[in-house]
Amino acid sequence: MPQLTWLVTGCTSGLGKQFIHSILARGDKAIATARGDISRLDVLAKAGAKVYSLDVTASPTDINAIVGTIVEENGQIDIVVPNAGYIEAGISEEVSYEQYLSQFAVNFFGVVKTTQAILPHFRAQKAGTIVFMGSVGGIAGDPGAGPYCSTKHALEGWYECLKIETAPFGIRSIIFELGHFRTKVFNPEHIQIRSSAIEDYTPLRTMVEGFIRGVDGNQPGDPKQAVEVILDVIRGEGAAEGKAFPDRLPLGGDCLVAMRKKAVSNLTVCNEWEDVIRSTDIAK
C-alpha cells in the first residue's frame, strides 16, 4: 500500500497520541493537532509528526483556515480522524445548559467543523477516509453520562447521513464504537463533574462518582491494540485482510455486549409489536 497521510485531532494524550505513534510506525505520515501551545506535542514532533495548533471549538472560519494551511503545507491528506473529545459527567437533570453546550462544542460540533473543513479537499481529489470515534455511549446510556452520551448519539445520526451524501465523491466513512479503554479520560484532571446537587439524586450521584473513581486506570480495553485494529481496517491489512470494509465496528468486549443487547432488544420489539407497528400505516 502507498504511504498515506493522516490528520488527527486531540493528540496530547490517550488515543490521539497513540494514533500518531502507530501511524508513524506503519511508515505513514502523521499530522497531529491539539488546542493551544504546540509545545504540548513536542514528543510527537520529535517522533516525526507534523504538528499544528487547532482548537476544535474555534469558529468554522478559523478551523477552515488552519486545515487549509495544513493541506497547503503537506499536500494530499488521505485520512482524517476527528478524535478530540472529553467527558462532561453529571446527572441529566442537574447538569446545566452551559455544560451541555460545552460538551457538544467539543464532542459533536468540533467533529462537524473539522470534517466540513477537510471535505472540500477530499471532494477535489475524489478520495479520502473519515474515521469517526464513536462510543458505547452512542449505543446505550449510562447514569451520570447524559451530556457525553447525547453527543455520541448525535454523532451516530450525523455520520449515517454524511456517509451516504459523500460516498459518490469516493469518500469512505466509518465509525468505531469504543468501549472503556485505559486512557486518562476518567482521570480527575480530564473528566468534568460539575452539577448542582438535587437531594433526590444523592444516592445515584454517589454511585456515579464511585464508578468514575473505580474505573479510572482499570478500564479493560488496550488503547494501543484498539488503534492498531483501526489502522488495519483503514489500510485493509492485518486483522482486516480479506474482510469487507464495515460501516461501523465495535471495539472492546464491553462494547460488543452493549451493541448485541441493543440489537436483540430492538429486534424483539419489532417482532413482538409488528402488527401494532404496521397498524399505524394508512390503509391501502
Automatic annotation (TrEMBL):
UniProt cross-references to InterPro entries, sorted A to Z: NAD(P)-bd_dom_sf, SDR_fam, SDR_oxidoreductase
Domain of life of the source: Eukaryota
Molecular-function GO terms, alphabetical: oxidoreductase activity
Positions of transmembrane segments: none
Pfam family, one: adh_short
Keywords associated with the record: Oxidoreductase
Record keyword Disulfide bond present: no
Similarity field: Belongs to the short-chain dehydrogenases/reductases (SDR) family.
Name the record gives this protein: Short-chain oxidoreductase
Source organism per UniProt: Amniculicola lignicola CBS 123094
